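Researcher: I need the complex structure. Ligand is zinc ion. Inputs:
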Amino acid sequence: MLNFNFQNQTHIHFGEGTISVIATEIPLNARVLVVYGGGSIKANGVYQQVIDALAKHTWFEFSGIEPNPTYDTLMKAQEIIKAENIDYLLAVGGGSVIDGAKFIAAAALYEGNSEGNTEGNSEGDSEVNDPWDILAKQQAVTKALPIGAVLTLPATGSESNGNSVVTRDGNKLPFSSPLVCPLFAVLDPSVTLSLSDRQISNGVVDAFVHTIEQYLTYGVNGKVQDRFSEGLLLTLIEEGPKALVPATKENLEVRANIMWSATMALNGLIGAGVPQDWSTHMIGHELTGAFGIDHARTLSIILPAVMKVRREQKREKLLQYASRVWQINEGDDDDARIDQAILLTEQFFQQMQVPIRLSEVDLGSKDIDLLINRLEQHGMTALGEHDDITLAISREILTKAL
Ligand code: NZQ
Ligand code: ZN
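Model: Output:
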């Protein structure tokens, strides 16, 4: 096992009817900004529960954070933060809203580029202090407003990690800081009943791929991490499809198991002390940035191709995955067992109603150059657990995904 340090500060409140805890989780003297998306929380009653819980607080709201949140939208929140002296953010929504709140929280207290005057910035402090540098130049976050979260879409794990992904002019970039990890998160599985099938599928697939990216690398004898990961994968394979069929889709136990799996998949636990890959995500981000494809649907297209192109580097773990997750144990032909595990992964994605090829989202070989250029532009030239997925190998992966 590799050395690691692990801390997760998020206090989780899990279960039906738990939104009311925000009344006591947020200090009474806080000036709270409730941030949310396009209004699904008004239609499903979550907004009402939140404002009931905030009855004794001073609060304001900022809405309109879109899926794959944009810099332009998020920067608009800075006006109300300054005008109303906001000192606490409550994010109510899915990964986009929570990621958006993280950027808002860091941007509000951003003191500027440590390099001082940035090249090409002759217009003064506002340009030099552009919080976009947190993503574009990976400038450290040194302060951020505290964040609480009410999760409405199990998928990203954003409710209990320090990661955020923000888009500006088609450039979709991640940043990470423990300072933006939510202090508490409310996970009420019943609020997921209003999700469309498409969003349920996206969530299950995103959580599945998060687990895979921290598991399907090379062995370091991290038995606890491996078995936690296998438990999450098995749970998602078992419960995910149930959330799409009429007989079981309203079952709150199904929803609860999916919700907790998604949080556990990316709260730092299974990735501590083991190598991580993330190439599927980084290539996937370019597909979303350039073509607007849903995050999880980029992953279901790219992951099988990564498994195929990287089968030698991942051989040992692919065989473990075949055996422990898909129970493929018969026969001496290792390659046949790996092929079977990849096929079953693709069939699981198809059962979850997501695409597994670029052609299914109307993209073809003519689009690969653009994606490779963007990977290069974003510095994604040495991906994977060995930092050896070059642009040429990313091209091979994209070609395999056609
Ligand atoms: O805008 P609202 O009204 O909230 O509607 C949303 C949105 O249209 C809707 N929705 C959410 N909860 C609902 C609901 N509709 C009905 N009932 C509910 N209970 O679902 C739509 C999609 O929401 P979004 O937040 O975009 O989805 P998701 O949670 O999948 O988040 C995706 C974003 O997270 C990033 C992705 O790149 C993408 O930008 N990621 C964040 C990560 C992290 N912070 O660790 C890791 C991930 O790999 C990912 O990159
Ligand atoms: Zn993801």
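Model: Summary of the prediction. DSSP finds 16 helices and eight strands in the chain.
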